[in-house]
Amino acid sequence: MSQLLTSRVLSPSELNDQNFSEMYSLFSDYFHSKEDIFQKDLFKKDWIILLEKKGSKSIKGFTSIGCLDLVQKGKEMSAVYSGDTIIDKNYWKTFELSKRWIQTVLEKCKHPHRPLYWLLLSSGYRTYRFLPTFYKEYYPRYDQETPKKFRNIMNVLAKEIYGASYHQKTGVVQFKRGSSPLLEDMAKVDPGRLNDQHVAFFLEKNPGYVNGDELVCLTEIRNGNYTPAGERMLLR
Fold first, then answer.
1. CA end-to-end span of the chain, whole Å?
2. pLDDT digits over 31-43, tens only?
């Protein structure tokens, strides 16, 4: 169904009132959300990816992207982090957002001499499943302890971006006022999904997801770390 969608990248300042209205309406179909918090999150980011239906230009999905450069123990690194993200469920099988996302990140945030990490907040198992689908090495994960190197990077980035909302002991971000929990129907987990070890792990690590808690996850965006599905995203 990806052939029915187009995508474009713009800065938050380029959004018009119609764009914002459609985005907020779509997001509210899946999440409990407050308009001021939604808007504040968007304008904290550097880039917005819009998915639009061909012909009508109506918005069927979006994500926001923030880029950050920092130094840890004398070593420079770059990081990308995602904001509110949603795709109309009628287009869940599309690859357009994944394709445009990796293209945008490599173009806007990748530095030739710095490692690039993706700090992903997962408020639901569907988001968490992006990691094993597209990346070989990522954390946390059910089959391996998080190495000290990755744990340190996660802590540094999460504290820098989310401040006191990040709880290092649990690896979870809890926004006191700005959480956007999934709507009840979207938060339900089909018992059959528990046979998926990735899903079961996510639910164990982030039981408060129903209240809007977000699990902090990390992967490195680099050649050699893509699964076959991730490699295909680069070629589309």
1. 14
2. 988 899 899 889 9
